[in-house]
Design goal:
The chain is an alpha+beta fold and 356 residues long. It has two domains: 4-234, Rossmann fold (3-Layer(aba) Sandwich), CATH 3.40.50; 241-353, OB fold (Dihydrolipoamide Acetyltransferase, E2P), CATH 2.40.50.140. Helix content is 24%, strand content 35%. The chain has a six-stranded mixed β-sheet, sandwiched between helices. The longest helix is centred in the middle third of the chain and has 18 residues, at 167-184. Bound molecules: adenosine-5'-diphosphate and magnesium ion. Adenosine-5'-diphosphate (ADP) is lined by residues 13, 15, 17, 19, 37, 39-45. Residues 43-44 line the site of magnesium ion. Pfam families: ABC_tran, OB_MalK. It comes from Nonomuraea endophytica. One of its GO terms (cellular component) is ATP-binding cassette (ABC) transporter complex, substrate-binding subunit-containing. GO terms for molecular function: ABC-type transporter activity; ATP binding; ATP hydrolysis activity. This is Multiple sugar transport system ATP-binding protein.
Length: 356
Amino acid sequence: MSAIELRGLTKVYPGGVRALDALDLVIPDGEFFALLGPSGCGKTTLLRTIAGLETATSGSVVLGERDVTNIQPGARDLAMVFQDYALFPHMDVTDNIAYPLRIKKVAKAARGDKAREVGERLGLAQLMDRRPGQLSGGQQQRVALARVMATQARAFLFDEPLSNLDARLRLEARTFLKRLQRELGVTTVFVTHDQAEALAMADRMAVMEAGHIRQVGTPAEVFQRPINTFVASFIGSTPMNLLDAVVRGDSLEVSGCKVAVPESAAGLLTDGEKIVYGVRPEYMSYSAGPAEGALGGKVSIVENLGASHLVTLEVGTASVQAVVPEGREPVPGDDGYALPRADRALAYRDGDLVAA
Ligand code: ADP
Ligand code: MG
């Protein structure tokens, strides 16, 4: 098991696409690290470059103490799980799991023992003689995981491993995978385009955009203090409210309403300057009557989230969303007031977070 360190890692594909642009990143030994970003931002390229399946244009990949930038993939001792699992359709579960050991020329009996041991651990004991075509999506995924676990990898690299599972299986697999990683303590890089998955699973995470890492932090840090408006709008199950605002003395004017300056930006804003005011729908308290410092308007849409509702208010020219607990939700056409939490609201200047 090893830490992973990337130094100035750059990948330019033939034809000129700069998929990775001078990335620096350190993932400590044993960490579960999630890599999040929209399609095409370079996540797969980053994983493949760590694995050695793509050669870096410049920069380096260091595993533990060892610079592996020019080392063949097979000699890096990394295990990668792909989105489509890449199982061999003509081999049974035992042989699929044992395949990497066969490549390493481990004796047949020892391979079988190891495959059974790992298969048992992943709840595959009854399925060892089946072929992938005779397994459900969730079972195939476990076989792919088992294959990775059968090898002594220094790190696990996962490329959107849950994206082919249906919603419920996906939640189960998420918890399962997380528990497994905890038990094994193997450094893990987990690529996803699903922010909920990243927030739920990661010890730390990075948000990528167009070949760059925009923010690295714990899920709580990234959720509560997105460093720019791109990250702010990408993270969260309901998008953050990002509203044009003007600084007026010690408060802000937002679409005709007067709200408090975010605590994190106190003393850092200039009177009269234009900023973007950010507050998550979850960090609003909602009332039917006027409240000091609230954004007031007419309710246009009420969406049922299960145990709560997402209420959209038309405030002047802006739309503002607030999460309202079950039983207190309004109906469209009502007057409504959303009071932001000053300790959770944020200010963005030219797209970047204003904070000490
Ligand atoms: P992601 O996994 O985040 O969706 P990728 O790493 O697959 O992103 O792709 C990043 C960028 O590199 C995209 O613009 C993609 O079109 C480009 N790209 C990926 N693979 C190749 C390749 N083999 N040749 C040329 N361009 C590529
Ligand atoms: Mg990809």
